[in-house]
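User: Design a sequence. Structure:
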């Protein structure tokens, strides 16, 4: 028996659980959903929660109901496009998952940028480094400068799909837009951001020198260390709870 946690309303979580099973094919198109009693037993929720969830799924165009028979997955449910639910990014483990996605994309982006960058790309990267240093000196948020640096790398790949993916993900790529990440590192914010920009500079130097493996390694160090710290924090939070 699996149960649903309490970070979101039970209805919202049940809707997401069923919608996920529909999107992954666990519940096939046209298939009847488990009975109310089965869902109550599996998810450890009330009958009211189950009925609210089914009504929500019906409103979303994922299921239809037949009086006295039950709920069925619609036969023409459209394939869900890839997207990251930003509400989920309040959950630390979801931020870790996004970081894993980011690492897989940006390591290759850095490698391609090292091969394909031109002088305009290098100037844009250097400008973003300078911008971040200036915002750190002023004691301001450096998120925009951070985004600009990584966006410039995506642009330097000369592959529009890298840039489109980056622009789609936007600020969800930067954990500190939602977390006080410097506290996870036991550092004052300024020292933490200075370290981040030193890591940026290592990536920049590798791309400038057209060092493909060096660019990958520098990006892996930059993003991997952040992911590992987030994982450690998530593990501690799980033990406490």
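Assistant: Done.
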């Amino acid at each position: 028996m699996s149960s649903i946690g309490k970070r979101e309303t039970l209805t919202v979580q049940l809707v997401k659980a069923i919608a996920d099973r529909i999107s992954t094919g666990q519940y096939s198109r046209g298939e009847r959903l488990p009975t109310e009693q089965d869902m109550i037993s599996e998810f450890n929720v009330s009958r009211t929660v189950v009925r609210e969830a089914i009504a929500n799924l019906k409103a979303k165009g994922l299921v239809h109901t037949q009086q006295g028979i039950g709920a069925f997955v619609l036969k023409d449910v459209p394939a869900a496009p890839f997207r990251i639910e930003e509400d989920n990014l309040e959950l630390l483990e979801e931020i870790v998952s996004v970081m894993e996605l980011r690492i897989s994309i940006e390591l290759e982006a850095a490698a391609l940028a090292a091969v394909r960058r031109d002088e305009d790309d290098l100037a844009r990267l250097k400008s973003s480094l300078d911008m971040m240093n200036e915002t750190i000196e002023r004691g301001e948020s450096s998120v925009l400068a951070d985004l600009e640096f990584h966006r410039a790398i995506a642009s330097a790949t000369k592959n529009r799909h890298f840039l489109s993916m980056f622009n789609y993900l936007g600020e969800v790529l930067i954990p500190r837009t939602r977390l006080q990440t410097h506290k996870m590192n036991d550092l004052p914010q300024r020292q933490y951001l200075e370290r981040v920009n030193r890591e940026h500079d290592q990536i920049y130097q590798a791309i400038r020198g057209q060092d493909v493996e060096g660019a990958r390694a520098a990006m892996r160090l930059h993003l991997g260390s952040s992911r590992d710290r987030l994982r450690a924090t998530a593990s501690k939070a799980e033990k406490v709870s």
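The chain has two domains: 10-73, 86-240. Strands lie at 63-66, 70-73.
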